[in-house]
Amino acid sequence: MHSIADSELFLPDIETHAACEVHERLRQQGLVFFQFRIDRQAFVQWFNRLFLIQHHPDSSSDGITEVAATGHEPKHGASSGFTNQALPLHVDGSAERVPPSILCLLLVASAHGGGQTMLSDALDLFHWCVAQPDMQGVLAFSSRAKFREAEYPIFDPLIDPRSLTFRFRQDQYLWPAAGVSVADLRRLAIQLESKALNVTLVPGEGYLLHNHRWTHGRGQFVGPRLAWRLLGSIRSEDSHADLNDGFLIPHLGGEKQ
Fold first, then answer.
1. Is 249 within a domain?
2. How many domains does the chain have?
């Protein structure tokens, strides 16, 4: 992808759109590209208008986690996040009982080289698994993978089996468990990577995604790359609050009008 502005997932002038419009985009496609001025306070205020900010152990008091090659040892999460090493496709908060439903990232400073953004849709992955006879165990709600100390299904029905939360990471905190093998996890990773969008962001560009559905990662880089990340959820009184329970599977009767 040469420019996010050329993508059908791009939402111009995102600050001018009502919360319900942005939420509906997330319901339908799960991912939105946007442009935003590099103004930390304005970025947080805009995000807080649309979502309830969820603080992370590595975030500042305003909710922003500064993602850069600082060598900082994270309090929670992959250690490669604060290095210049590649960060494979993953879902933030995979080991939490209810992962954050919303993730937003704005690039503040570019790398001198590398650092390409990777994004891959778990809804497409789900349909691929359905078509693979030897991947049915991964889809079974009784199957488990171990995320840190907890065991969850890879495709996890938090509330309703028609809505699923995809849990995935590629580091030392994910192990196979009941019904899921090392080979299964590797095949999931390969399939996600084969279908990934590869995007080169420039400062002032970012993405907003449904963290229960879309995985994200980045390539290895050199130079002072800096991104601001915010995590959140949709407020419980909102008509799109069901996104906090996962993404809908149409052929399971999970269509939402």
1. no
2. 1
